[in-house]
Design a protein that fits this description.
By secondary structure, the protein is α/β, with parallel strands linked by helices. 32% of the residues lie in helices and 24% in strands. It binds ligand JHZ and S-adenosyl-L-homocysteine (SAH).
């Protein structure tokens, strides 16, 4: 444990890591990759958990960005369900989405009421092609001011799996305060720190996830900007996420019971105590040993192991546990921009998923463990024929 800045405590060291979504071409695998040390810290004052070394947004999110929200039915359904709820309960006249990616959420709304902000031009153009109003820029206070010159204030702002990717939270929330109408609702959705600790999903930490939020941490930053959480929904998405409903302080919306309930659960678990994080760190070390022993055993027995879902999360697992192409033959993934490339750091080939698993596969390492239900349903044939999966959460095991 190390204390730096007098108020931040380092509690987890996940070793040398490459950028999580930086998949390699064949000609890049011979070259030395840029790596950094992935260390996770707890901010005692704000109760925020964040990674120590960060990269510029441009370095992470540019016109080569491979992630597509539309690759899972689970996400599509989650966005659709939320859109139904929004239309029924909030009835917004204008919607702004920050981090709209390929338009998977916005497509549930009319084009003339929606605006998407997506800095990766390769992904943004997918939504634009469908005639949605999208802006290929990073969300900043500067952009918010520009937007206000053209549009009225927004009565609904949604941002899933994006705010945790932006280092300058003061800039984000200042800008939200500016563009949100007085009675407007700002909805944030991100992985839950509580679930991350409970499920030992240390792979929620990688360069893009600058923060993994808890309610008790997030509320402190929001408060500085006159914003408050009035409702929290717990979701099973991405291995346990929280959907925070946020309003301006003076807005009359009632603060719902779910907020107090959440606060109590997090405090009871000890998210405000450094001891909790140090215990987590010990469990992560144990998890690494166990996973490595499973892979070593498979190798000794000459079993064929492949990976399923070359996720950003699995970059953390593979590099931390030092699992490489001698242990995993290849990964399968449905994302075009990942296919025929190699996993960052560990250089395992990613192949196109063609709808079935090869007959000689003994084990599948589930990189996309967060879509376990969806994938198990899809791979019913493999499971029925005796096929097994390796999964690392809550502790590594074969199922
Ligand atoms: P998935 C990315 O993380 C990065 P990743 C980012 N930082 C973030 O926060 C989340 O997304 C939202 C594939 N797949 O969603 C598709 C199959 O091949 O867990 C994807 O490559 N077959 C923005 O990368 C990957 O798995 C399938 O049936 O950790 C899933 O990636 C399914 C369901 C998925 O996010
Ligand atoms: N909201 C989608 C996409 C999440 S991926 C979902 O939940 O599936 C995160 C997205 O945020 C990426 O497409 C990335 O380009 C975008 N992003 C990163 N920083 C951003 C910023 N400052 N402003 C707007 N979008 C940003």
């Amino acid at each position: 444990m190390k204390i730096y800045n007098k108020k931040k405590i380092e509690f987890l060291d996940l070793g040398q890591q490459p950028l999580a979504n930086y998949y390699l071409n064949k000609n890049q695998i011979q070259k030395k990759e840029k790596k950094y040390r992935l260390v996770v810290c707890y901010d005692v004052k704000n109760k925020l958990v964040s990674i120590k070394k960060t990269f510029s947004s441009k370095m992470m999110f540019n016109n080569k960005y491979p992630y597509r929200s539309s690759m899972s039915k689970t996400m599509q359904k989650s966005f659709k369900d939320l859109s139904i709820q929004i239309k029924k309960k909030i009835k917004p006249k204008k919607i702004l989405e920050i981090g709209s990616n390929d338009g998977s959420f916005l497509k549930n709304f009319k084009k003339n009421i929606s605006i998407g902000i997506e800095p990766c031009a390769n992904v943004e153009k997918i939504t634009k092609k469908n005639n949605y109003n999208t802006i290929a820029e990073f969300w900043t206070l500067k952009l918010a001011k520009k937007l206000l010159k053209k549009f009225d204030k927004m009565d609904l702002i949604y941002s899933a799996n994006t705010i945790s990717h932006i280092k300058n939270l003061d800039d984000v929330f200042k800008s939200i305060n500016l563009v949100l109408s007085d009675n407007g609702v700002f909805i944030i959705e991100d992985p839950s720190l509580l679930e991350c600790l409970k499920r030992n999903t240390y792979d929620q930490f990688y360069n893009e996830h600058i923060y993994v939020f808890s309610y008790i941490g997030l509320k402190n930053i929001l408060k500085k900007h006159n914003l408050e959480i009035f409702k929290i929904d717990s979701l099973d998405i991405h291995g346990g996420s929280n959907r925070y409903f946020i309003k301006k302080k003076e807005c009359a919306r009632k603060i719902e019971h779910s907020v107090k309930k959440h606060c109590n659960i997090e405090t009871k678990y000890g998210l405000d105590k450094i001891k909790t994080y140090l215990q987590f760190s010990k469990r992560v070390e144990k998890s690494k040993k166990l996973l490595l022993s499973i892979f070593t055993n498979c190798k000794l027995k000459n079993k064929k192991v492949i990976g399923y879902g070359a996720t950003a999360k699995s970059t953390t697992i593979l590099n931390y546990c030092k699992i490489n192409d001698s242990m995993i033959d290849y990964f399968l993934d449905t994302t075009k921009d990942k296919q025929n490339k190699y996993t960052p750091g560990t250089k395992i080939k990613i192949k196109r998923y063609n709808g079935s698993i090869e007959k000689d596969v003994d084990y599948i390492f589930l990189g996309a463990w967060n879509f376990k239900k969806e994938i198990f349903k899809k791979e019913n044939k493999y499971i029925k024929s005796g096929g097994k999966f390796i999964i690392h959460t809550p502790m590594p095991k074969i199922i």
